[in-house]
Request: fold
Amino acid sequence: YEPRLGQPLQLHEIAPSLQESVVPLPGSGIGSGAGEDGRLRGVVIHRLLQVLSEAQRASWPQLVQGIAGEFDLEGDDARLQQWYQECDHLLQNPRLSHIFAAGQEVESLNEVPIIYSHGGRTVHGVIDRLLLRQDEAWLIDYKTHRHADAENCAVLAADYRSQLAYYAHGIQQLWPQRRLRTFLLFTTPGLLHELTVSEPPR
Reply:
Protein backbone atom coordinates (compact mmCIF):
# COMPACT_ATOMS: atom_id res chain seq x y z
CA TYR A 1 0.00 0.00 0.00
CA GLU A 2 1.33 3.41 -1.01
CA PRO A 3 0.32 6.03 1.63
CA ARG A 4 0.49 8.85 -0.92
CA LEU A 5 -2.46 7.33 -2.80
CA GLY A 6 -4.70 8.21 0.13
CA GLN A 7 -3.71 11.87 0.13
CA PRO A 8 -5.91 14.49 -1.58
CA LEU A 9 -4.76 15.67 -5.00
CA GLN A 10 -3.22 19.16 -4.89
CA LEU A 11 -4.84 20.56 -8.02
CA HIS A 12 -3.79 23.99 -9.26
CA GLU A 13 -6.52 25.32 -11.54
CA ILE A 14 -5.24 27.80 -14.09
CA ALA A 15 -7.57 30.82 -14.20
CA PRO A 16 -9.95 29.34 -16.76
CA SER A 17 -10.82 31.38 -19.81
CA LEU A 18 -14.46 30.48 -19.39
CA GLN A 19 -14.57 32.02 -15.92
CA GLU A 20 -12.78 35.28 -16.57
CA SER A 21 -12.34 37.52 -13.59
CA VAL A 22 -12.78 41.25 -13.93
CA VAL A 23 -9.45 42.79 -14.94
CA PRO A 24 -9.59 46.49 -14.07
CA LEU A 25 -7.76 49.06 -16.11
CA PRO A 26 -5.72 51.56 -14.08
CA GLY A 27 -7.86 54.57 -13.37
CA SER A 28 -10.82 53.35 -15.40
CA GLY A 29 -12.63 50.81 -13.28
CA ILE A 30 -13.53 48.76 -16.35
CA GLY A 31 -12.80 45.15 -17.01
CA SER A 32 -14.25 42.15 -18.78
CA GLY A 33 -17.73 42.91 -17.49
CA ALA A 34 -18.68 42.33 -13.89
CA GLY A 35 -21.61 40.24 -12.83
CA GLU A 36 -23.50 37.26 -14.13
CA ASP A 37 -24.11 38.75 -17.59
CA GLY A 38 -20.37 39.29 -18.09
CA ARG A 39 -19.64 35.68 -17.18
CA LEU A 40 -22.41 34.41 -19.45
CA ARG A 41 -21.08 36.53 -22.29
CA GLY A 42 -17.63 34.97 -21.92
CA VAL A 43 -18.86 31.39 -21.74
CA VAL A 44 -21.22 31.73 -24.70
CA ILE A 45 -18.65 33.45 -26.93
CA HIS A 46 -16.13 30.71 -26.18
CA ARG A 47 -18.72 28.08 -27.06
CA LEU A 48 -19.72 29.87 -30.26
CA LEU A 49 -16.11 30.14 -31.43
CA GLN A 50 -15.52 26.48 -30.66
CA VAL A 51 -18.57 25.22 -32.54
CA LEU A 52 -18.72 27.65 -35.46
CA SER A 53 -15.01 27.38 -36.26
CA GLU A 54 -15.51 23.65 -36.88
CA ALA A 55 -18.56 23.98 -39.14
CA GLN A 56 -19.59 25.29 -42.54
CA ARG A 57 -21.01 28.82 -42.44
CA ALA A 58 -24.35 27.73 -43.89
CA SER A 59 -25.01 25.69 -40.75
CA TRP A 60 -24.16 28.46 -38.29
CA PRO A 61 -27.71 29.79 -37.67
CA GLN A 62 -28.93 26.32 -36.75
CA LEU A 63 -25.91 25.72 -34.52
CA VAL A 64 -26.50 29.03 -32.75
CA GLN A 65 -30.04 27.88 -31.91
CA GLY A 66 -28.59 24.73 -30.38
CA ILE A 67 -26.15 26.75 -28.31
CA ALA A 68 -29.01 28.93 -27.14
CA GLY A 69 -30.65 25.81 -25.72
CA GLU A 70 -27.44 24.82 -23.93
CA PHE A 71 -27.56 28.05 -21.94
CA ASP A 72 -31.34 28.31 -21.52
CA LEU A 73 -31.52 31.31 -23.83
CA GLU A 74 -34.20 32.11 -26.37
CA GLY A 75 -33.01 31.86 -29.95
CA ASP A 76 -33.84 35.50 -30.60
CA ASP A 77 -32.25 36.76 -27.36
CA ALA A 78 -30.67 40.12 -28.25
CA ARG A 79 -27.54 39.31 -26.25
CA LEU A 80 -27.04 36.01 -28.03
CA GLN A 81 -27.49 37.64 -31.41
CA GLN A 82 -24.94 40.32 -30.51
CA TRP A 83 -22.42 37.69 -29.37
CA TYR A 84 -23.06 35.69 -32.53
CA GLN A 85 -22.36 38.78 -34.67
CA GLU A 86 -19.14 39.36 -32.74
CA CYS A 87 -18.01 35.80 -33.44
CA ASP A 88 -19.10 36.06 -37.08
CA HIS A 89 -16.89 39.12 -37.51
CA LEU A 90 -13.95 37.28 -35.96
CA LEU A 91 -14.35 34.16 -38.06
CA GLN A 92 -14.78 36.15 -41.29
CA ASN A 93 -12.03 38.68 -40.55
CA PRO A 94 -9.27 38.35 -43.19
CA ARG A 95 -6.71 39.51 -40.62
CA LEU A 96 -7.54 36.44 -38.51
CA SER A 97 -7.73 33.91 -41.34
CA HIS A 98 -4.40 32.42 -40.20
CA ILE A 99 -6.15 31.60 -36.91
CA PHE A 100 -9.53 30.32 -38.07
CA ALA A 101 -8.83 29.24 -41.67
CA ALA A 102 -5.22 28.15 -41.47
CA GLY A 103 -5.40 25.48 -44.16
CA GLN A 104 -4.94 21.73 -44.29
CA GLU A 105 -1.24 21.91 -43.46
CA VAL A 106 -2.13 23.19 -39.97
CA GLU A 107 -3.82 21.06 -37.31
CA SER A 108 -6.40 23.20 -35.51
CA LEU A 109 -7.66 22.14 -32.08
CA ASN A 110 -10.29 23.72 -29.86
CA GLU A 111 -10.76 23.50 -26.07
CA VAL A 112 -7.59 21.49 -25.46
CA PRO A 113 -7.37 20.21 -21.86
CA ILE A 114 -3.96 20.03 -20.24
CA ILE A 115 -2.93 18.46 -16.96
CA TYR A 116 0.62 18.07 -15.70
CA SER A 117 2.77 18.23 -12.59
CA HIS A 118 4.70 21.38 -11.77
CA GLY A 119 6.37 22.34 -8.52
CA GLY A 120 4.71 19.52 -6.62
CA ARG A 121 1.21 20.45 -7.80
CA THR A 122 -1.03 19.17 -10.55
CA VAL A 123 -1.79 21.94 -13.02
CA HIS A 124 -5.01 21.82 -15.00
CA GLY A 125 -6.47 24.14 -17.60
CA VAL A 126 -8.15 24.35 -21.01
CA ILE A 127 -6.56 26.05 -24.02
CA ASP A 128 -9.10 27.78 -26.25
CA ARG A 129 -7.36 27.18 -29.57
CA LEU A 130 -4.13 25.43 -30.51
CA LEU A 131 -2.58 25.50 -33.98
CA LEU A 132 0.08 22.88 -34.75
CA ARG A 133 2.28 23.79 -37.68
CA GLN A 134 5.24 21.84 -38.99
CA ASP A 135 7.76 23.60 -36.78
CA GLU A 136 5.59 25.85 -34.58
CA ALA A 137 2.73 25.62 -32.09
CA TRP A 138 0.44 28.61 -31.62
CA LEU A 139 -1.42 28.83 -28.33
CA ILE A 140 -4.41 31.20 -28.41
CA ASP A 141 -6.57 32.24 -25.48
CA TYR A 142 -9.78 34.22 -25.98
CA LYS A 143 -10.55 37.28 -23.87
CA THR A 144 -14.02 38.80 -24.05
CA HIS A 145 -13.54 42.16 -22.31
CA ARG A 146 -16.23 44.48 -23.61
CA HIS A 147 -14.02 47.56 -23.38
CA ALA A 148 -10.86 46.12 -24.92
CA ASP A 149 -9.40 48.19 -27.76
CA ALA A 150 -6.11 48.86 -29.49
CA GLU A 151 -5.03 51.28 -26.79
CA ASN A 152 -5.57 49.12 -23.72
CA CYS A 153 -4.95 45.57 -24.96
CA ALA A 154 -1.34 45.55 -23.78
CA VAL A 155 -2.42 46.62 -20.28
CA LEU A 156 -5.10 43.94 -20.14
CA ALA A 157 -2.78 41.28 -21.55
CA ALA A 158 -0.16 41.75 -18.83
CA ASP A 159 -2.48 40.25 -16.22
CA TYR A 160 -2.65 36.98 -18.18
CA ARG A 161 1.09 36.39 -18.58
CA SER A 162 1.15 33.88 -15.72
CA GLN A 163 -1.85 31.97 -17.10
CA LEU A 164 -0.26 31.69 -20.53
CA ALA A 165 3.04 30.63 -18.94
CA TYR A 166 1.30 27.63 -17.35
CA TYR A 167 -0.37 26.75 -20.63
CA ALA A 168 2.88 27.10 -22.54
CA HIS A 169 4.80 24.92 -20.10
CA GLY A 170 2.29 22.12 -20.57
CA ILE A 171 2.33 22.37 -24.37
CA GLN A 172 6.14 22.43 -24.50
CA GLN A 173 6.20 19.10 -22.69
CA LEU A 174 4.00 17.59 -25.39
CA TRP A 175 5.72 19.15 -28.42
CA PRO A 176 9.23 20.16 -27.30
CA GLN A 177 10.50 20.22 -30.90
CA ARG A 178 8.14 23.00 -31.94
CA ARG A 179 8.74 26.72 -31.41
CA LEU A 180 5.88 27.93 -29.23
CA ARG A 181 4.11 31.27 -29.65
CA THR A 182 1.43 32.48 -27.23
CA PHE A 183 -1.40 34.88 -28.05
CA LEU A 184 -4.47 36.50 -26.56
CA LEU A 185 -7.37 37.16 -28.93
CA PHE A 186 -9.49 40.05 -27.67
CA THR A 187 -12.86 39.33 -29.20
CA THR A 188 -14.49 42.77 -29.00
CA PRO A 189 -11.95 44.62 -31.19
CA GLY A 190 -10.79 41.47 -32.99
CA LEU A 191 -7.17 42.05 -31.96
CA LEU A 192 -4.56 39.32 -31.66
CA HIS A 193 -1.91 40.20 -29.07
CA GLU A 194 1.28 38.12 -28.79
CA LEU A 195 2.85 37.68 -25.35
CA THR A 196 6.29 36.33 -24.55
CA VAL A 197 6.21 34.09 -21.48
CA SER A 198 8.82 32.39 -19.31
CA GLU A 199 8.81 29.60 -16.71
CA PRO A 200 5.52 29.60 -14.76
CA PRO A 201 5.52 30.26 -10.99
CA ARG A 202 5.90 27.26 -8.71
About this structure: Residues 1-6, 15-34 have pLDDT under 50 and may be disordered. Residues 123 and 176 are 18 Å apart (CA to CA). The two ends are 29 Å apart (CA to CA). Strands lie at 11-13, 107-118, 121-132, 136-143, 179-186, 191-195.
